[in-house]
Amino acid sequence: MTNKFIKTMPITLQIKKVVASAIRVAISYEKLTNRKLGITGEVGEVLVCSHKKLKEKGLKLSSNPILAGYDAIDKNGKQYQIKAKQSDRGSLSRFSNHKFDVVIVAVFDTNYKIKELWRASYKKLEPLIAGHKRRNPSLPEFKRVAKEIL
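Request: output the structure for the sequence above.
Response:
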């Protein structure tokens, strides 16, 4: 499912530094206000794409994930949606109506360190998301059709 018209960008050292800075600010904000800053999704995409367990995939971020329908693409052209959560309970964020090849779900600890990584193909996931009006299965439901990476 390759779309040659969607631009991608590699995860550079500069991007990693900015994300690390955003994480520090988010943690400080959460301690100060007891509220989330709302960076989990964006941070998740960068941390998943640059994670050592996925390095051989050569993941690059989509420059326009809403238009593309996926968050990243690997060196072979496979399209990835990436979901991130700071809790191992509750529902995942909504899956778009676009088709993609693979979904990666990252579960963070309170310091935005990845403590779990899960992978599922669209083929395995599609019946599950189709069964949810909002296309957002729970994390435990997702884990039943996924393979644990970390």
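The helical segments are 13-33, 40-49, 65-68, 122-130, 139-145.
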